[in-house]
Write a structure and sequence with these properties.
The protein is built from 13 helices and no strands. With 349 residues, the protein is an all-alpha fold. The protein has a single domain, classed as Alpha/alpha barrel (Glycosyltransferase). The longest helix has 26 residues. The N terminus is likely disordered.
Length: 349
Amino acid sequence: MNSAQILSRPVDVLMGSGVVSLAWGCLIFLSVVVGERRAEAQGASALLGPEVSAELDKMYVRGLQFLQKSQAPEGFWSDPQYGREPAVVGLAVVSMLAHGDDPNNGPYAQAIRKGLDYVLSQMNKSTGYIGKSMYNHGFATLSLAEAYGAVTDARLGPALEQAVKLIVTSQKKNPFGAWRYSPESTDADTTISGAQMVALFAARNAGIGIPEEAIQKGLKYFLQCQTPEGGFGYTSSSGPNGARAAIGCLVFALAREKNSAAFKSAFRYLQNAPNQNYYQQYYIYYASQAFFHGAPEGWQAWNRKNIETLAASQEADGSWGGQFGPTFSTAASLLSVALNYRFLPIYER
């Protein structure tokens, strides 16, 4: 197999022979179809990166099986910490989509559908607001964008458009041209703003019209928060750390600004940032994408080390532990290695 093939406030600091011949023929056919999908989605960039090893795939599948088994019938997760948060449910769904199985009839199709049902049930039908914080809204919108066009569900397009409209409207009312805890917030921070920006880029990839003004205003806010070291502060241009540097790198990369001074200095900071053990899964979720965009060779080295660390820390049931509970920790850990598969549109280089 070729490589072409969370939340709420605490994040702030920051899953007979005839029969045999028929089965084998189906397998070959599916391999060709998957290869074509991959090539169409990724183009030449799909050739970059290592082979997906059997060990990595086994680890990923164990994580997905944990998510599948621990999901409640209503679509959320039984994890008492954040399992009911639309952001966490959305990221768990995205981690399933990222493995590349058929989202409508594959092994995780039912779990994906239940998760999306839950995310949609948490959307305010009048405003489009998902959950009770813009953290939730941003990551939940990302899940709708990644599912749209892949999952057969007529509700996804209208819901995605409504969720995007709320993000854009909220930004227009914000004096900083960015986002914070609620759609009515008059202050802003880079972590919540990063979640909204990534959601907008994912929606744009899915074919939803995104005003260029919204993108440019968001980038301007990040520039205002960039520190002399190249990283990004939380609400101002001071106090950078690795996680926010990764968020900033990703935002500028998705905006196709990788030749900008802002991206280059942020990536230099990220490469030299101290290892971030606190909020580890939150960090690796963003850092994997930042290194992927920043330098292919740098990503491959970072990726190998990340896989080794995750393999050593995966629990017997397939989960990972962390400050935000096993559902978020598992989904974020899986997504940090999902670039080895390259199925998600948001993971295009």
